[in-house]
Design brief:
single chain, two-stranded antiparallel ribbon
């Protein structure tokens, strides 16, 4: 989203209204993906992880899971990506995502079933 904000600032300064309209639609699509689909559709996260690891390597994927020590994905999707990195021999940031998942479990009363809810 920060990249979109930077592009929007450039578009606004240039008064490039078609660019701003496109960026707005991209922003809406990103919001929909990250807020509504990634939390429940794990195939999206796994497909992204497999494709990214195939293109750039599992170590690069693992490196994208944190930014300044903070999780870059939602906890459940991040755990799936950590598992993928681990299976491909890269060292993922398990601790950060397990901590984030535990915090989410304490503050969110949704139940998704499956092994990620098991202890």
């Amino acid at each position: 989203m920060a990249n979109l904000a930077t592009a929007a600032a450039v578009g606004a300064a240039a008064q490039d209204w078609p660019l701003l309209a496109r960026l707005l639609e991209i922003s809406r699509a990103c919001d929909y993906l990250y807020r509504w689909r990634l939390p429940v559709e794990h195939e999206i996260a796994e497909g992204y992880g497999r494709a990214y690891a195939q293109l750039f390597g599992a170590r690069a994927l693992s490196g994208r899971l944190l930014h300044d020590g903070r999780c870059t994905f939602l906890p459940r999707a991040g755990l799936l990506l950590c598992r993928l990195c681990d299976m491909k021999g890269a060292i993922p940031p398990w601790r950060e995502y397990i901590t984030a998942h535990d915090l989410e479990r304490r503050t969110n009363n949704s139940n998704y079933g499956g092994m990620l809810n098991a202890r």
